[in-house]
Each structure stands twice: as structure tokens, then as C-alpha cells.
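Supplementary Methods. Inverse-folding protocol.

Structures were first reduced to a C-alpha cell string of length 473. This string, shown here, constituted the complete conditioning input.
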């Protein structure tokens, strides 16, 4: 291979893997941390209104998560197809993946806009009879769904940037949108600087505003900076074959992440059988755990295009290195989160204006649930490996088994013991099962998909001296 060939190669095929993974993941991890911060700040301000307002926002989470699942799953499919096509030097398929992906994101938004206008209040009436929680929830959810074009647009455009290795631009999109949200949260909730006090609707509007800004920046970066992709509005025709390839990876991912919406809805129903405060605690947990999980998701977002690219280039060695380093970094992050939840649970709850009852329920909840963190890093990274290699159905099986077959039934059975503390043990129980299943699937994927590929050492040597040592995961 000539030096000219190496220079023209995308960095995902030639840069030393450890350096590449860090350079691509770190911007995404930082932006995900900002994203987690604004999720927490959002609930912190809502908690200042009342505990019922916090409960309403917590009950809205399944629908918000469903939107994120569809946008993110579509993005995963686009990411995997586009990066693989880049590795194969198939420019036509790269462009088709990008253009069809944007179309799919917009169509998804239209569905949620209509559903939000028609069914927001009904959704809360199926969960509680408290009129204040229903009113707060309907206000919040209707704004989030009607304005969700920003969410879908931002996530799709970010994935396009990640697919070509431009994670720094993706970080800017997400970070600026999150900062806008953080700034306008108190302004719109409490009515500062001449704005009307909008309460929970103001929190939703600040979120939508931040997403719209992030989407606009993402569109600009893709048009002006993402030279690997060429958009075509005039003469564009949907490609059924490309859409099927996107959803071959994306649909299992959508279903997999949507399962958590079903789990959250079911868990809220179980917890409401004890007290609405337990539901508020569960909502707070999801906000706090995002500060631990989001960096791992950012790591995944950096890992997937590297893995997909080198899969397309049939480079086994770089794939193995990418998986090994990703798992190692993820486990370190999750263990740090476990330590934080064990030592400072009361302090974490205090950010949310927690009552005595909320602290009494929340401290054991955070400590018990956080035991699942020890195993979660390995499972999360492995799930993204399956998706990047076109084996997303394995992630789907694992997610359904963990959340619907083990977690929810365990939570229900433990609730029959009459104490809410027992319910939280369902999380580490489910994660142990997931660890076992994930390990089996990862060995299977290595033997069937990765091991038959060529080692691919030549390009690594040309780029940076001796290639990194690699071994099977």
C-alpha cells in the first residue's frame, strides 16, 4: 500500500485505535455530560414548583424516551450504514443513507406532533387521578411533542456528523442546545426578564428551544463542513432498499430502547401503588443516572462509526482493539458512578428540593439500584457492538429479556412484600441476567463475524509505526 493511499484513507481506518477512540469519543462524552446536566437542571427547577410538578415530569418520561428511541434508533441505522459505506468506498450509498435518514426523521416528528395534540391529557389520566398532576403533565407533554422537530432533527444531524468522524461538530450542536435549555429554564419557568411565568410548560418550551438551536447548528455543519456527504433536495426520491438497510439495524435499536418506555410506564404504575413520592424518586433516579450513563453513550457514539468503518474495510485487528478499549473505559465510568451513588445519595436528592419522605425513600433506592452499574458498562458497549455489526436483534433480545421478562415481573413480585425498598432490587437482579446473556452473545459475534476477517495490520503500521497489540475480547 502506498503512502498516498494512506493519506486519502479516512482516519477511522488508519489512526492508532486508542488515540482514535479517545479523539472521537471525548467530544461526545463531554457533550453527553452537558446533556445530562441540563436534564438534571430541568428537573431541579421543576421541583421548585412542587413535588406534583416533579411527578408529572417523571410520568411524561416514557413518551419522551419513546421519541428519543425512534430518533436515536434511526440514527444508529444511518450511522452504521453510512460508516460501513464509507469503508467500502460506496459514495452513492453514503448519500442515499444521509438523505433518506433526514426524511425518516421528519416523518417521525409528524407522527408525534399529531399524537401529542390529541392524546397528551389521556396519557396522564391512564396513570393517575390527581388533577394537578394531570394538568401539569398534559401541559408539559403537549409542548414537548409538538415542538419535537428539534429533537428529531438534532439527533439525525448529529449522527451524520458522527458517521464521518466529525464528533467535535456534533459536540458543539449538543452542547449549545443544552446551554440554551439551561439558560432559559428558570427564565421561562419563573418568568424572569419580562417573560411570563409558564411553570412546567416553560420547562418544556426551554427544552424545545434548545433542541431547535441544536438542530439548526447541526444542519449548518453538515452542509458546510461534512464533505463526505452530499445532500440533494431537488430530485430526491426515497430509496426503499436504503430505508430497509437503515431499519435492519435501526428498528431493533428502536424497539430495544422503546422497551424502557414500557418498563418505566409499568414501574410507575407499581410505585404509584405505594405513593406518588416513590414515582418522583424514580424520576429523579433517571435524571441522576443519566449523568453516569450519558458519558458511556458518548463513548458508544465514538465507537460505532470506528467499528462499522473497519467492518466495511474488513480489518479485524482494529475492530478487536476498539471493542476492548471501549469496554474498559465504560466499566471505569460505571464503577465511578456506583461509588458516587453509594457515598452521596442524600446530597444528590437535595438538589431536587427533596422532602423528608422523598429522602427516606430515595436514599436506599439510589444505593440499591446503583449495584447494577457494576455490570452495565460491559452490557451497554456490547449492545452497541452488536448494532454496529448488523446484529442488532441480539441487543433487542437482551433488552426485552432484561426489562420486560426479568425487571418488571421482579419489581411486581417484590412489591407484594409490602415495602417499596424491595422493589429497587429488581434492577441489579435484571442486570446480572443481562451480563450473562451479553457475554454469550459477544463470544458468538466474535466467532461468527469478527474472527473470519483479515487482521489488517498493514495500514496501522504505515500510519503510526507498529500496530497496537490486539487480542480477542
Amino acid at each position: 500500500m502506498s503512502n498516498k493511499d494512506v493519506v486519502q484513507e479516512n482516519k477511522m481506518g488508519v489512526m492508532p485505535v486508542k488515540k482514535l477512540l479517545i479523539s472521537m469519543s471525548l467530544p461526545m462524552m463531554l457533550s453527553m455530560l452537558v446533556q445530562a446536566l441540563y436534564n438534571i437542571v430541568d428537573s431541579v427547577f421543576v421541583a421548585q414548583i412542587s413535588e406534583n410538578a416533579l411527578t408529572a415530569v417523571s410520568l411524561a418520561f416514557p413518551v419522551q424516551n419513546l421519541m428519543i428511541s425512534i430518533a436515536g434508533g434511526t440514527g444508529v441505522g444511518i450511522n452504521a450504514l453510512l460508516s460501513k459505506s464509507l469503508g467500502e468506498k460506496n459514495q452513492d450509498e453514503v448519500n442515499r443513507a444521509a438523505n433518506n435518514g433526514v426524511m425518516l426523521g421528519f416523518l417521525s416528528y409528524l407522527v408525534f406532533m399529531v399524537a401529542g395534540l390529541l392524546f397528551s391529557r389521556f396519557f396522564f389520566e391512564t396513570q393517575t387521578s390527581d388533577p394537578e398532576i394531570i394538568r401539569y403533565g398534559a401541559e408539559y407533554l403537549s409542548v414537548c411533542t409538538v415542538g419535537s422537530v428539534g429533537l428529531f432533527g438534532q439527533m439525525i444531524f448529529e449522527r451524520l456528523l458522527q458517521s464521518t468522524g466529525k464528533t467535535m461538530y456534533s459536540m458543539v450542536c449538543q452542547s449549545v442546545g443544552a446551554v440554551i435549555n439551561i439558560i432559559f429554564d428558570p427564565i421561562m419557568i419563573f418568568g424572569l426578564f419580562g417573560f411570563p411565568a409558564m411553570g412546567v410548560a416553560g420547562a418544556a418550551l426551554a427544552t424545545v428551544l434548545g433542541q431547535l438551536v441544536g438542530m439548526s447548528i447541526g444542519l449548518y455543519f453538515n452542509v458546510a463542513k461534512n464533505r463526505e456527504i452530499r445532500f440533494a433536495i431537488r430530485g430526491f426520491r426515497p430509496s426503499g432498499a436504503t430505508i430497509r438497510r437503515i431499519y435492519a439495524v435501526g428498528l431493533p435499536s428502536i424497539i430495544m430502547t422503546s422497551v424502557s418506555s414500557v418498563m418505566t410506564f409499568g414501574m410507575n404504575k407499581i410505585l404509584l401503588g405505594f405513593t406518588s413520592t416513590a414515582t418522583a424518586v424514580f424520576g429523579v433516579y433517571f435524571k441522576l443516572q443519566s449523568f453516569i450513563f450519558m458519558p458511556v453513550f458518548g463513548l458508544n457514539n465514538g465507537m460505532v462509526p470506528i467499528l462499522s468503518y473497519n467492518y466495511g474495510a474488513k480489518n479485524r485487528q482494529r475492530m478487536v482493539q476498539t471493542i476492548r478499549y471501549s469496554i474498559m473505559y465504560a466499566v471505569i465510568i460505571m464503577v465511578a458512578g456506583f461509588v458516587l451513588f453509594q457515598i452521596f445519595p442524600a446530597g444528590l436528592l437535595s438538589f431536587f428540593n427533596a422532602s423528608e419522605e422523598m429522602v427516606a425513600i430515595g436514599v436506599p433506592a439510589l444505593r440499591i439500584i446503583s449495584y447494577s452499574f457494576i455490570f452495565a458498562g460491559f452490557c451497554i458497549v456490547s449492545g452497541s457492538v452488536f448494532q454496529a455489526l448488523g446484529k442488532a436483534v441480539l441487543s433487542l433480545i437482551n433488552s426485552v429479556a432484561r426489562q420486560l421478562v426479568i425487571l418488571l415481573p421482579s419489581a411486581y413480585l417484590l412489591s407484594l412484600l409490602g415495602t417499596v425498598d424491595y422493589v429497587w432490587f429488581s434492577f441489579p437482579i435484571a442486570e446480572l441476567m443481562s451480563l450473562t446473556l451479553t457475554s454469550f452473545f459477544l463470544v458468538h459475534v466474535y466467532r461468527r463475524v469478527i474472527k473470519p476477517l483479515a487482521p489488517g495490520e498493514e495500514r496501522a503500521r504505515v500510519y503510526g509505526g507498529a500496530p497496537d497489540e490486539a487480542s480477542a475480547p
